[in-house]
Amino acid sequence: MTEAMNPELSIFSVDTLLKYMGNDDKALTIVSKIVRDACAPGMAPFEQAGAALREERLTDANKIFHSLRGSIGALGAKRLVAASLALEKSIAERQHDAIPALFAALESEYQLVLRDADAWLKGNALPGI
């Protein structure tokens, strides 16, 4: 089992973020905006990174993954963070054979985050948001 698939790591959880922000309606409004903004690009980062990898622009691909890890990692996406770190390391070390499988694993984790974030937004939206 890879670290990215470790069931003890979370796919998506903003509970801690909400708690630190006061766990009230104002916090919920702010966190909802953070979640929407972080997930707004959808699959575009993967399309861009995939193109960079195909064109052997490894530094560009790593920058995209690093940025994605930062924005989505703030949403408690520990499995995504682990998968991204593994892929970024393989890219940096030019382990070309490992990159396709790690890319697929990270893409899968990202899709799970988007799914869970969407479900969270639908279940926690305040009226008028």
UniProtKB/TrEMBL annotation:
One Pfam family this sequence matches: Hpt
Q: Name one GO molecular function term.
A: protein kinase activity
Task: Tell whether DNA damage is among the UniProt keywords.
Answer: no
Asked whether the UniProt record includes Phosphoprotein among its keywords, one would answer yes
Q: Give the HPt domain ranges.
A: 24-120
Keywords attached to this Swiss-Prot or TrEMBL record, sorted alphabetically, are: Phosphoprotein, Two-component regulatory system
Q: Which residues carry this modification: Phosphohistidine?
A: 66
Query: Which terms under GO biological process does the entry name?
Result: phosphorelay signal transduction system
Name this protein carries in UniProt? Hpt domain-containing protein
